[in-house]
Amino acid sequence: MRLSFGATFLVAGIAAGYITGLQALVRAGTVAVPDNSKWQQELVNPKDPYAIYAVGHFKAQGALPPPHDSQLFSRDIDEDGKSLRGECTYLLSGTAPAARWWAVSVAPAGAMADAVSTNAADVIITGDERLNITLSHRTAAGNWLAMPDAANVKVTLALHEPYDQNIKGSASLPVLTKVNCE
Amino acid sequence: MIGRMFWLVTALFAGIAAHLATILYAPGLTFERKLNVIVAAHKPNSFFLMTPDTQAGFLPTSTAEDIVGLCLVDLSKGKVVIDAHVPQSFWNFSIYGSSGQQIYDINDVEAGADSFSVELTKAKSLIEQVRSNADPDDAGKIANSGWHAEVPGERALAVLWFPVRDQTQRKTLEDEVKRTNCNAN
Lengths: 182, 185
Description:
A: 6-stranded antiparallel β-sheet, 2 helices, B: Immunoglobulin-like, 29% strand
């Protein structure tokens, strides 16, 4: 009887350690963008004493952390807080990213290797420096990115050498609004 | 009561051990498995270009339209010199340590040239640092070597990334970058 009590405690302790480890890996490496909780910045802050968690976040996905002079933002919800879905059409709009190079990608959640993307050279920016990209599985006029055939979709914005290294917040990042769903 | 306390403390330590193992080892195993697939056809200390379908998942800020070159650096037999050839455009060259942390980077503005060399050596241990302080010649060697980075551990990953503005030029750009060497001396 005493042995089974001990074994139960031991298994519970190991399970708790394993589960909290997995949760920490999922949460680490991402921080909410100030004033815009819809975008998350994925990064490793080398000064962070818990940077090992953030590095583990990327390594657990079989990926390297973003380089220091690049910024990676991601989101899986629209402006209304609803999950991004492959059968819906969305409009990514805002001021043109202020960086030496940038790229927008869409991919099934958890499968960035299957991402389709567009970048600073492909996208036409309007005269007032506005960015408008339609994300849809149907071809759209203007800047268009094909939505993957997936229930849950992730959108990423990579800024390489942003002109303002402290560029963060809703004023700098585009919004993603749902147009319609089929 | 003492028996229950014993199991409670044992479970607590087992939980901490499981947590640390999940954080420290499990991600490394996943990463190593993926890296081994990527570098399977290439020897350590050789430079190669990644295929577009693998690079976006491996370097999350890159896309399939970019060009990404890799060299798995092995410092077990001494220093490694990377002679990089890059097009006159925006590029970034990074070194990642075996822990996965970026330990060095340089870009086109900082290098100011379309070819450059980076010498990688294994970081000295504390005892070696104390010894080398007593040997002024050693410090001189490092000062004269140009771009230089010290890598903690014997393995590192050199990553060269640059975007392709015009995909019709991709083959030309790839041929230029393929001239990059990653040599153990």
